[in-house]
Amino acid sequence: MRISQKFEELKDKNEKALIAYVCAGDPDPDTTPSIVNALVEAGADIIELGLPFSDPVADGPTIQAATCRAIEAGMNTERYFELIKGLEVNVPLICMTYYNLIYRQGSENFVKKCVDAGISGLIIPDLPLHEADELIEICKEKGIDNIFLVAPNTSDQRLDAIGSKSSGFIYVVSKLGVTGEGENISSNVAGLLDKINSNLPKAVGFGISNRKHVEEMVAAGADAVIVGSALVNIIASGDNIIPRLKEITKDLKEGCR
Amino acid sequence: MNHYYGDYGGQYVPEILMPPLQELEEAYEQYKADPEFTSQLNDYLENYAGRSTPLYYAKNMSRKYGLKIYLKREDLVHGGAHKLNNTLGQALLAKFMGKKRLIAETGAGQHGTATAMVGAKLGFETMVYMGSKDVKRQLPNVYRMKLMGTEVVSVDTGSKTMKDAINEALRDWVTNVGDTHYLIGSVVGPYPFPKIVRDFQSVIGREVKEQVMKVEGRYPDSIVACAGGGSNAMGIFYPFLDDEVNLFAVEAGGEKLREDDKIAYHSASLATGEEGILHGARTKVLQNRDGQILESTSVAAGLDYAGVGPELARLSETGRVKPCYITDMEALEAFHELSRLEGIIPALESSHAIAYVMKMADSGILGDTVVINLSGRGDKDLQTIMDMED
Predict the structure, then answer these.
(1) Number of domains in chain B
(2) Does some domain include residue B281?
(3) Euclidean distance between CA atoms A19 and A189, whole angstroms
(4) Is B291 found in the same domain as B173?
């Protein structure tokens, strides 16, 4: 399913999107499908499935540890695509990974595999806009979205460029820092959201871990929220993970309505 | 602005780091020509670091190996390694930019120590990230950093070496971009770091040019330097790029050149790595089929890195610089050889360059006059070596 289609659907229902991140293969490749099913069943609108990289510099300790567990458990690029092909969920799937894994396969080859597996979009946190010309071209040709990030310190000029080159949605980083659960969300997010001059939906991520955060972001003007570390922490605990993931996802989704 | 060396280089970093990279690039271009900046830097290099360092004719070694061997004595720089050339330059730049805090990564601890020195000297709050494996094997440097008021953070993720220390430093920088300068210690990372570090280290090659002319009346046939990230190598090579001088970059061959899916038992990324993206740059990287970064290994903590500077990757691709490697055992042998023959205890990193000259002395490829960059002294490695020889 295309990301734009999902946002259209939600617009009709007057809802914001809940985007859930988990790392493929964490805690092991066999458990990932039931985790994804649970998230979708409980209300996640879009699933961001991490393809683990050994050196995830934009991620904090929670997701870094998940990446390690997944690689240890045998997750690799080939299995990742197989795993995605085997998923039976009717929501857009996004591949979040680091650029070396794409570069290594060759961008064209990688994007083709994404399309074959049913992936709708790519998020690559270490690929800034000005290094991405080739990939943008390929993604456009193959019909998958290239989602770029903007940060609180991104210049107005870059905001405009990213707004015009991104597709699917714009990933708005809520704070200066890496991924991870936070106590409070920056009060400046509303200002940042206002500054982004684009028709694309704006999804806020980094540090969003509970319903209160979600409600604050929706009030600030976000079209979607991205929750990762809060979910990954539940997986890391190994304790009753499916029911707990469902419970938190339902609650987070309530904040989007 | 071209951020590449051929196909290598670039800026593969999270969006948050784009403004500070641009700020750094602009500040560097502005201040490198500023008379106040250059005069302060030159004063520090001369009176604090102790430059210029001698170009020493190693007579005993020359006689034994049948070559004219000169050692560029970067081991005599304050702190015991070439690293201070770059940290003085970058810290002064950070000062001119109004930054309050320095962070750095370190492998062998030499760059960390040099950062601690400039942090103390120029009044910065300083934090150094170091892999926990390196903390254990380089304790004297850890203690030195602490003495100078630097907080040393032991990094326990991944291979627990320099690669992981860089990851942590990048995360810190992403979080504290406003008041913090990331003082990268080698010619690696996103542009403009490879250029800035190379320029500050080029003082080594510029001095060699003058010194060797004075004693030999000509340039040497070969220059040999060890290469992990490659800062001492780029520093001595760069001024000679347009001259007819053979340039050899000696990497760490580790225990032997073999690899499985997670570990390369060496650190020879120029000689054996493949094109990839690591720590913000496209360069030669030790990686598996998928592109996961391999854990590198070397007896020399300062060479134990899965990547290499992008400019060095380019120079190696065009054939201007010849990559080669030396095993741990060969480096150890050279460590003893130089100590015995010349009364100079080299760092294990520099021992790789010495070992290459010993190994190739009879081959004819070095010509007859060779300059070895003695990038650091070996005091920090004594415990490692005593443990190995127990």
Answers:
(1) 2
(2) yes
(3) 18
(4) no
**Number of domains chain A is built from:** 1
Contact B14 A68 (CB under 8 A): no
Amino acid at site B237: F
Q: Answer with the one of B193, B225, B260 that is the final residue of a domain.
A: B193
Per-residue confidence (pLDDT) for residue B30, from 0 to 100: 98
Domain at B211, CATH number: 3.40.50.1100
Owning domain of residue B76: 50-80+202-389
Please indicate, yes or no, whether residues B75 and B92 belong to a single structural domain of this protein: no
Label residue B259 by pLDDT band (50, 70, 90): low
CB contact under 8 A, A100 and B285: yes
- Examine residue B1 and state whether it is found in any structural domain, yes or no: no
Burial class (CB in 10 A: 0-12, 13-18, 19+), A39: buried
Mutation for testing the A interface, residue in B184, B292, B296 having most A CBs under 10 Å: B292
Residue B7, domain member (yes or no): no
Domain around A170: 3-255
Q: What is the pTM of this model?
A: 0.97
Q: How many CB pairs under 8 A join A and B?
A: 111
Find out whether the peptide bond into B52 is cis, omega within 30 degrees of 0. yes
What is the per-residue burial (b if ≥16 Cβ within 10 Å, else e) of A186-205?
beebbebbeebebebbbbbb
**Rounded Cα distance, B209 and B222, in Å:** 12
Q: Is the pLDDT of residue B1 over 70?
A: no
Distance CA B124, CA B183 (A): 12
Which residue type does B145 have? Answer: M
The first and second tokens of residue A188, run together, are: 């400046």
Q: What is the DSSP letter of B44?
A: I
pLDDT exceeds 80 at position B257: no
pLDDT along chain A (257 residues), means of 10: 97 97 97 98 98 95 95 97 97 98 97 98 97 97 97 96 97 93 84 95 96 96 97 97 98 97
C-alpha A41 chain-centroid distance = 18
Rounded-to-integer distance, Cα B183 and Cα B89, Å? 10
Q: Residue B212: its pLDDT value, please? A: 98
Mean predicted lDDT score pLDDT of chain B: 96
- pLDDT-derived band at B17 (thresholds 50, 70, 90) equals very high
Catalogue the active-site residues of A: 48, 59
Same structural domain for residues B207 and B59?
Answer: yes
Contact with chain B for residue A170, Cβ under 8 A: no
Helix-strand-coil split of chain A, %, nearest 5: 45, 15, 40
Tens digit of each residue's pLDDT (9 = 90 or more) over A7-39? 999 999 999 999 999 999 999 999 999 999 999
**Mean pLDDT throughout B277-300?**
95
| Strand ranges for chain A from DSSP E | 17-23, 46-50, 93-96, 121-123, 145-147, 149-150, 170-173, 202-205, 224-227
Q: Do A104 and B18 touch (CB under 8 A)?
A: no
Beta strands in B187-317 (DSSP E): 222-226, 246-254, 274-278, 281-285
Residue B287 three-state SS = strand
Out of A114-118, B78-82, B158-162, B384-388, which region has the weakest mean confidence (pLDDT)?
B158-162
Place B158 in a pLDDT band, splitting at 50, 70 and 90. Answer: confident
Query: Of the candidates B12, B171, B275, which has its C-beta nearest A126's C-beta?
Result: B12
Domain with residue A107: its CATH number is 3.20.20.70
B55 and B42 in a common domain: no
Give the single-character DSSP code of A73.
T
